Amino acid sequence: MGSIVTRVFAFLSLHSSFFILHSSFFILLFLVSCNPTRRIPQGEYLLDSYQIKIDNRDIGRDQLSPFVRQKPNRKIFGARFHLWLYNSANPEKTNRWNEWLRRSGEEPVIWRRGMNRASVEQLNIFLRRKGYYYADITDSVVLKNNRANVIYNIRTGWAYTVNNITYSIADTSIARLILADTASSLIRRGMTFDEDVIRLESRRIETNLRNRGYFSFAADYVVPFADTIYHSRTVNIEITVRPFTERTLDNQAVEAPYPTYSIRSVKVNASLSMQNLVDPNSRRTEVSDTLEYGGVRFIIPQGFPVSASAIRNATFTTPGSLYRISDVQRTYQHLNGLRNFQLITQEFTEIPGQTGLLERELDCVINLLPLTRQGYGLELEGTNSEGNFGGGIRLLYHNRSLFGNAEFFELRLRGLIETLPRPDDRIISFRARLEYEAEATLTIPKFLLPIQSNLSNRFTQRYNPRTTFSVTYNYQQYPEYYVRTVFNTSIGYNWRGSDVNSHSVKPIDVVFVYLPPHYLQPDFEATLERFPFLRNSFRSHMIVSSSYTFIRDLRLRNPRRANSIYTRFNIESAGLLLNTFYRIIDPTRQTGNPYEMFGNNFSQFIKADIDFRYYYSIDNNNRMIFRTFAGVGIPYGNSKIAVENIHIGSGATNIIAAMPYEKKFHSGGANSMRGWRLRSLGPGSYRDTVLFTAHPNSTGDIKLEANIEYRFHLIWRMEGAVFMDAGNVWDSRKDHDRPGANFRFDRFYREIALSGGLGIRFDFNFLIIRADLGMKMFDPAGIGRWALTPKPNGNRIGWDDFNLSISIGYPFF
Fold this sequence. Notes:
Blueprint: H1 2-14, H2 23-33, E1 46-54, H3 61-64, H4 81-88, H5 96-104, H6 113-129, E2 136-144, E3 147-155, E4 161-169, H7 172-180, H8 195-210, E5 222-229, E6 234-241, E7 244-247, E8 253-256, E9 260-269, H9 274-278, E10 290-293, E11 296-299, H10 308-313, H11 325-337, E12 341-350, E13 359-370, E14 374-385, E15 388-399, E16 408-421, E17 430-444, H12 454-463, E18 466-478, E19 482-496, E20 501-514, H13 522-530, H14 532-537, E21 541-553, E22 564-574, H15 576-585, E23 596-597, E24 600-602, E25 605-617, E26 622-635, E27 640-644, E28 653-657, E29 665-666, E30 699-700, E31 702-713, E32 718-730, E33 753-763, E34 768-779, E35 785-786, E36 802-808
Parallel strand pairs: 1-3, 4-6, 9-11, 9-13, 21-24
Antiparallel strand pairs: 2-3, 5-6, 7-8, 10-11, 12-13, 14-15, 15-16, 16-17, 17-18, 18-19, 19-20, 20-21, 21-22, 22-25, 23-24, 25-26, 26-31, 27-28, 29-30, 31-32, 32-33, 33-34, 34-35, 34-36
Helix pairs in contact: 2-4, 4-5
């Protein structure tokens, strides 16, 4: 990584004219930075900055920043773009243009002394909450050139720590449960006193009791009292639970033990509509089908998309069971997982006449408002590959409950055509590059195993898994190369291990690739004969693999959290069991002669990759994303074949192994090295001057990549981005036909490509349209070349040094 940083700084120092290529962007920043105080009235000051200085490392500045009551105008790359927009409006005119500038911009923040005092007060309140009762906070301001720079100096002093924790609970049944669970308490002796932790402890006690039948208990009934002891700098905490009170028949308030609640009945009302949803008093239950299943009463109209059995399996609140808030939450989660309802509510009603009873009952009504069962869609797409224009159409169909048990079925049909000019024709004529694809997936909301067992049912209830069957057929006609068909079928299992962890297992994933020999173009066929590694990748073959994917996404735990981490790990193995089976039945097979299945070689490899992302929010307007990716694939066993190598001599053979083309790593494009077209970078320092110059297909067995992207909000729904990418792909084995393509520890760091650029995004909530303009900063091909250095033809820069990617969605979102 140090070498990459060195390369970046070397580039910036030796080739400062790189910035000229993005002149419009930096000229704009210059204009934005020009005199932002020109609209500030005489005697007033623009709040230019604020700074928090604190002597305690246990308190982060990001914790303190929300309590500063006056903050400067937003910045992008140090320039106040939104303030510039506002100042650009003519204050004497109210036409549409000037009103748009004011509305899109940001009014200047005028420094106010009173806001400083309010900030000091709020900071002091926050520090007292964290146990620093005697913090010293002072503010100072530097006024210069109509600008105000505010500094908050904080000396926290010593913090109070927790000494003794006692409980005062009159209700013995409640006291027994709370005291038995003190090992899970968030309050510990010796910890820094923190009021926020005490509030969380109150909610934890509430959850614990509501999981034990105490339906009427709430966190507000837990009243902590803190007694500070100055000379020892400690706090004694007494946690009091207020007694339960209720009204008697003569309207007298009396204290009583907290009652426990069980579920008397559960009713599922699936007869809701948008009309009676708006007016609850108009809800009707006159339906054509009322039944009871598994102890639950169902009111379901005819034609309802989901069966009573599927709903019952997703319902954990059951008649006769103790009330548990965890069952309520799991019911919401599993019913949402059926993907058939736009609204789910659970209403609990206490049965009248139970005053004074220690054990009481509740009636539960689950209201369901269904989504439309079937849906259709049509999408159009346009392509422009190397100036070859084309377009496609995608037909979409889905059925949310194909067989009535929330089986989600999706069908996608796609057709794409792209025009290719005939270079040998003097008269303009075209040939077409065609691609057709059909994909069908069926997702079943349970863990479907060949053998039904109680383990499967328990697993379904706990982890809400899905079983997915998928079939895909893809036809590709590249008139300059080949005709290729790909058939893929798989079965997979997906489940959530926790609120942030998810798992995916594909025990069977079969890919069959067929390249009819009579459709190979003569030039391309000659190329395959010349380069054995290509012959091994572009041949008919089968892949029978198994894979496992683990994802940990901390953003799911708290979507509003400023900083978060995303990690994805995947491992895939192919051909191991098949190769073992064939070795047993045919142990005399010679090395270099691969086994075949249904007349085609099957591949054997192991592949693993990891994707790590860190999301850092500077403020509400600016965000940084750091991403690293590393992957390696190793072909072995049945992937080895003996080929004749013309570079060695007539009749000489060479044993080579190659990953299947579909499983290799590639770089470049909209979501990778954005200075390069898709599959046009690498491998290593190899420069391809013969193959795929018009339709790049550079791939490798190893991939390393790192990305940094700075995202910022501009105006309306428009966002900007500045990014830098570093990475490449390599082959795992040396190939005489492609010097520099293989991975070597003593040189790979010199083959790390660099690209940078600017991007713009339009966020329409349901759709994000993105355009990124990337530039090659360092191209490792051949001897390597920095941008703007002379090329062999004498030119310094050309259109081939840039790549414009237009796509949907964020890169590495």
